[in-house]
Amino acid sequence: MRLGKFQWKNPVFLAPMAGVTDKAFRETVRSVGGHLVWTEMISDKALTYQNSRTLDMLNLSGEPSPRIVQLFGSDPEIMAKAAVLAVEKGADVVDINMGCPTPKIVKNGEGSALLLDLPLAQRIAETVVKNVEVPVTVKMRLGWTAEKIVAPELAKRLEEVGVQMVSVHGRTREQFYAGKANRELIRKVKEEVNIPVIANGDIFSPQDAQEALELTGCDGVMIGRGALGNPWLIPQIEHFLQEGEILPETSWEEKIEVALAHLERVLNYKGERIGLNEMRKHAVWYIKGVHNAAKIRDHIMQTKNSQEMKDVFLKVLHNHVYS
Ligand SMILES: Cc1cc2nc3c(=O)[nH]c(=O)nc-3n(C[C@H](O)[C@H](O)[C@H](O)COP(=O)(O)O)c2cc1C
After folding, report:
1. Residues 193 and 220 in one domain
2. What range defines the domain where residue 276 resides?
3. Ligand 1: which of 26, 102, 138, 225 to mutate, judged by most atoms within 8 Å of the beta carbon?
4. Is residue 20 lining ligand 1, measured as CB closer than 6 Å?
5. Chain centroid to CA 136
6. N or C, where is the chain less crowded by C-beta within 10 Å?
7. Is the pLDDT assigned to residue 319 strictly greater than 80?
8. At what angle do helices 252-286 and 306-319 cross, to 10 degrees?
9. Going by CA atoms, what residue is nearest to atom 4 of ligand 1?
């Protein structure tokens, strides 16, 4: 598939995840061999107000292409302004969020609320497309409820105004994360448009990815929760789709080394206090499955500084069995 100057075969994207896919995690995913990573969703309004925390979220310095920035908002003009800023900061793809189900987002008419107003969704995309030179993409859910599936029609409308790729999470807003991602409805989106469509939802293994591609006919896959504490899943899926071979399990030594490097990055970008706080959830995800994980999790939650967290990781690394 092609997206502007990029060309990929069966691309495997790291999904945008608020509070997760920050610069430190994107670098970590790249360090283990993933390269199609997305930023967290970034508020168009906060960006145009030059909010300093929001500008930090847009720090793409030193990151290789493709630098895919996701924006959320509900006003076409503000979205376009934010998109221009994102491109100035180095974005080479601008993605628009039409899927976030969180009440505080949808009450402002943003995220999946746009699934209730297709003409507005289309106008937002059209205005952004007209204002930036880089490809504009959209990530969406299937619809607001099972009775109101709009993704195929929305994708068609977006294609008409120049959107170059859509990613579809196979759930409705009403579902949040309940039930199973619906691959048949993603397939309907793929059949409706000529632009690339990326399948998203419930892909936790290379086999899941292959099955999703077969069932949906999509051009690529996108991985969210499966990559939490498991950034290796992205290159493992890529390898399987290209070579048909399952790579060996990542060793605990490698997992802990990558977690330690991730911690250093978080501390570097966010400082000791915020960094430690943000790393706790990642640390718990990294140690999932290790012997005595519940006990280690308690220790991680109690760490008072980054050295204590490093010590927990090193203890896991050197003891293997944490006692
Ligand atoms: C912690 C978390 C944060 C998320 N933040 C975003 C976001 O900022 N933008 C977005 O489009 N989707 C967001 N999502 C949804 C994911 O991108 C993805 O669509 C969803 O998790 C389904 O994929 P999965 O089954 O592989 O997790 C988030 C999901 C999680 C778990």
Report:
1. yes
2. 252-319
3. 225
4. yes
5. 16
6. C
7. no
8. 130
9. 17
